[in-house]
Write a structure and sequence with these properties.
CATH topology: Rossmann fold
Number of helices: 11
Oligomer: single chain
Helix content: 25-40%
Radius of gyration: 19 Å
Strand order of the largest sheet: 3-2-1-4-5-7-6-8
Shape: globular
Length: 287
């Protein structure tokens, strides 16, 4: 288990090195616009469950995911592996509550909250399925994952080549910190949920375009950063709809039990694909 401990140590060190997110420092920037459009995917969920209690997991960017939910009136606690950055964000009034939590050993009781949100952190965990089981344990209704996807299509090789040319990316499977990039497979996640007796899932894919030199540009208006970023996303969207390119990111909602007709209808209106998982015909039978 030495590798696991080393992975968490690297993650803790990376959190200590993080700068204040643009949600706090540059809310008008392309970078904040990008992260906000990802978090907007949660809207049909918390709108369908008014008054629900949430926690964020792996929210080491000063609790910026929890800050988004809090700004929309959602009752939320920010958590991450270390809490010094969360404490600072709380002192600045960005988040209402926080605590340090290891995703594999969350200190909350079973069904302590309604939803758990994990955005762009699941793929950093050393044992993502272990963390998922733990998140499902503490969630009463379900878990929301916003993560990179493992869904290769015909042109994904071209996309990787462009990343190498435009951004200088050299390694697609591992991070510089040493962590393996565990991209999310909706199909495999469905298998995990079926094994646990889950009934419903919902999925929506989106694309993103990131270049460090463009992130500080103003999101609104006609400028180089805004035009290139939006054009990069729009081009990928067209190719994804044609089935030539896999969506780079996805929001997957896994419900512990049936989600309910109204909730599923709300998700469908927001562009989600709702997946009814097969029921085990042998459950409840006796020899």
């Amino acid at each position: 288990m030495e590798e696991i401990e080393q992975s968490y140590q690297r993650q803790a060190e990376s959190e200590h090195q993080m700068k204040m997110p643009t949600r706090y420092t540059r809310p008008d920037s392309i970078d904040n616009w990008r992260h906000t459009r990802m978090l907007d995917l949660t809207q049909p969920i918390w709108q369908s469950f008014p008054g629900s209690q949430w926690i964020t997991v792996g929210d080491g960017r000063y609790g910026s995911d929890a800050a988004y939910l809090h700004s929309h009136g959602v009752n939320v606690i920010a958590t991450s592996l270390t809490d010094d950055r969360l404490k600072y964000a709380h002192e600045q009034g960005h988040i209402p509550a926080f605590q340090a939590e290891n995703a594999e050993h969350i200190s909350l009781q079973d069904n302590a909250v309604d939803f758990v949100l994990c955005k762009e952190a699941y793929h950093h965990f050393p044992r993502p399925p272990v963390a998922l089981y733990e998140m499902l344990r503490v969630a009463r209704v379900g878990v929301v994952l916003i993560e990179p996807l493992d869904n290769p299509k015909l042109l994904d090789g071209v996309k990787r080549l462009l990343k190498r040319v435009l951004r200088g990316d050299r390694e697609m499977q591992f991070e510089p910190s040493g962590n393996f990039l565990y991209r999310l497979s909706v199909r495999e996640l469905g298998k995990l949920m079926m094994a646990m007796g889950g009934e419903d899932m919902a999925f929506k894919g989106i694309n993103d375009f990131f270049h460090a030199r463009l992130g500080s540009h103003v999101a609104r208006g006609f400028n180089t950063g805004s035009v290139i970023t939006r054009l990069g996303i729009a081009t990928q969207d067209v190719l994804s709809r044609l089935g030539l390119l896999g969506y780079g990111l996805g929001c997957v909602v896994v419900f512990k039990r049936g989600a309910g007709a109204e909730s599923l209808a709300s998700l469908r209106r927001a562009g989600f694909q709702c997946i009814e998982l097969p029921k085990n015909p042998y459950v409840g039978q006796h020899d």
